[in-house]
Here is the input.
Amino acid sequence: MIEKQYAVIGLGRFGSSLSRELVKLGYEVLGIDINEERVHEMSQVLTHTVVADCTEEEVLRSLGIRNFDCVVVAIGNDMQASILTAIVLKDAGVTKVVAKALSELHGKVLQKIGVDRVIYPERDMGIRVAHQLVSPNLLDY
Ligand code: ATP
Here is the structure.
């Protein structure tokens, strides 16, 4: 079986935790962030790391981004950067784009662009914890 290749854009708390876990699960992960320090912190953990502004089409194309099976946009606060990155990824032909949204409106825009899965980390975690509280025997994953 050919292993899936993942790329995670934005190595904040969410992106770094997600990419760390994917590596633990045995997958190859390219981590990209505009912030050199964040990239440096993850450089020993991830398969490959790059410092880049992912709103720039040429940068993503030169990284061969369309060859990845799944690309996660883990940029939240900078909504413009999140949306521009998602457009560039869909235009480049990435098969599966997953993006984090910080608000319903942000999520709606991402969906309209064609993002394949929108996640709301705080909202989704709240729901998951509530289920775990009422059914403590529920598996954690
Ligand atoms: P988290 O909530 O996951 O901790 P955060 O609070 O650090 O994230 P976010 O704005 O969600 O802040 O950004 C996540 C990461 O995305 C940051 O490390 C930031 O440097 C990176 N980032 C922001 N804009 C870009 C961009 N244009 N290209 C690449 N990375 C970016």
